[in-house]
Amino acid sequence: MSVTETATERLISPARNILGSLRLPGDKSISHRYALLGGLATGTTRLGNFSTGADCASSLACVEALGAKVTRGEGGSIEIDGVGGRFRATEKPLDCGNSGSTMRMLSGLLAAQQDSFTLIGDESLSRRPMERIRKPLAQMGARIELTEGHAPVTILGAKLTAIDYTTPVPSAQVKSAILFAGLQTDGRTTVRESVRTRDHSELALRAYGANVERSLESVSIEGPQQLQAIQATVPGDISSAAFFLCAAALFPESNLVFDGLGLNPTRATLLDVLTALDAHIGVLNLEEKAGELVGTVQVNAPRDGLSGTTISGALAAQLIDELPVLAAIGPYTKNGIRIRDAKELRVKESDRIALVAENLRAMGAEVVEFEDGLDVPGGQQLHGAEINSGGDHRIAMAFTVAGLRASGQTLIRGAESAAISFPEFFDLLEQVTER
Ligand code: S3P
Q1: pLDDT value of position 237
Q2: Over the stretch 247-267, which tens digit does the pLDDT of each residue have?
């Protein structure tokens, strides 16, 4: 390919190896929660290693607009002077950018505040389903208006009533929205889910001093409760590490180590999948920080290539953010990657099933698309191609990884979207890639 890079395009050359040691910026999911709850809490929250992604900057900007004082320091250090339980109404709509987490979880916090608020987002966020938060919050007594199920989200907050709610689709964002409303509501609010989704909200609420009760399939919060500011360091983002872990697993001589990585069991399923694919994963130095598990992870690739696997049921929900990169390395495995029960992928920042299939085909792969997943046969060699990221950060990064094992060069269009979760992605990848 004779194309050159521009500000929005990246040219990826084949790699020989991935070698090195990295410490990653803070986890996106945890950073959102610390920002939103820190905004509501009483006192000054001091955070280290806060996510550098644009999504978490949206959460910070929203709590700032709602009356919290935010001070941004060096190296991911953030201070938030919380509003002490009462957000102020804003003149302008709250801009959630590309961030579904901000829009959905903040809606929960605001539904219990007796004022009106409007939340808007970019083009991609304005296409994403919001009925899933409107329904439970309306059941609690908030008035929430959407346009055909989408943003803008207009919230007329109210004194709410506690509910017992079973989520119809597994979603940590929906669970969190309900718990954040329940935190400020008299009585006991319970959320039940069929698949245990990431539990950062439960852990963050506890870190901020709230009492949260959990059983295997439900979480309850008795409101109202006041949050107290915390000091915490955000663990490295395992969903960002996923791109590097998968890249390293493709090259037999690779050796990659991550220090200070978030290893919350509801997020670390990728390590089990890589092990099932015959990669060697070592975990050391496990510690608990503010309820979150943190540790060192080492990955080595198998000598004779990755095997293959099927991801379905609860696994699909737990790996939802890692599925694009797992599908993108599928052709390089021996037996392929099959994904089912992952319909939610179609309503992420893009339709990730369609875009993964389109881009794998552009690289010469055979792939079968299903409504709820993909079959990516193994034993295929891909060639470089022009990749349509659809402005979706995880598609841009997943196909950068696929490009490392392809023949020829791969041009990632919309590469700047990586900054939504991981602005350092391309630079760090260069640091550990041997050619
Ligand atoms: C997230 C939950 C997941 C995930 C998203 C972050 C969170 O979304 O895909 O990237 O931080 O709670 P859903 O709640 O829509 O499953």
Answers
A1: 98
A2: 999 999 999 999 999 999 999
Atom of ligand 1 nearest to the CA of 176: 12
Q: What is the pLDDT of residues 288-334, one digit of tens each?
A: 999 999 999 999 999 999 999 999 999 999 999 999 999 999 999 99
Catalytic residue among 81, 199, 278, 321: 321
Instruction: Report CA-CA distances (Å) from 107 to 17, 38, 119, 121, 193.
Output: 44, 16, 8, 13, 20
Band of residue 5 on the pLDDT scale cut at 50, 70, 90: confident
pLDDT per residue as tens digits for the range 346-384: 999 999 999 999 999 999 999 999 999 999 999 999 999
HSE value, Cβ hemisphere, 13 Å, CA-based, for 320: 25
Please indicate whether residue 428, judged by its CB atom, sits closer than 6 Å to ligand 1: no
Give the ligand 1 atom nearest the CA of 175.
14
Residue ranges covered by each domain of the chain: 9-25+235-434, 28-233
Query: What would the DSSP string read from start to end of 184-218?
Result: TSSEEEEEE-SS----HHHHHHHHTT--EEE-SSE
Question: Are 336 and 377 a contacting pair, CB within 8 Å?
Answer: yes
Q: From the CB of 172, is ligand 1 less than 6 Å away?
A: yes
Other Cβ atoms within 10 Å of 434 Cβ, number: 12
Q: Decide if pLDDT at 2 tops 60.
A: no
Q: How far is CA 399 from CA 192, 366, 379, in A?
A: 36, 15, 18
Mutational test site, ligand 1, from 98, 101, 321, 421, max ligand atoms within 8 Å of CB: 101
Beta partners for residue 324, in sequence order: none
Sign of CA dihedral 97, 329, 271, 217: positive
Q: Is the CB of 241 under 6 A from ligand 1?
A: no
Mutate to test the pocket of ligand 1, among 131, 320, 350, 353 (most ligand atoms within 8 A of CB): 320
Look at the block and give the residue holding tokens 């598609």: 395
Architecture of domain 28-233: Alpha-beta prism (3.65)
Q: What pTM does this model have?
A: 0.98
Active site residue 321: yes
CATH fit for domain 9-25+235-434, picks 3.50.50.60, 3.65.10.10, 3.30.1490.20, 3.30.70.3490: 3.65.10.10
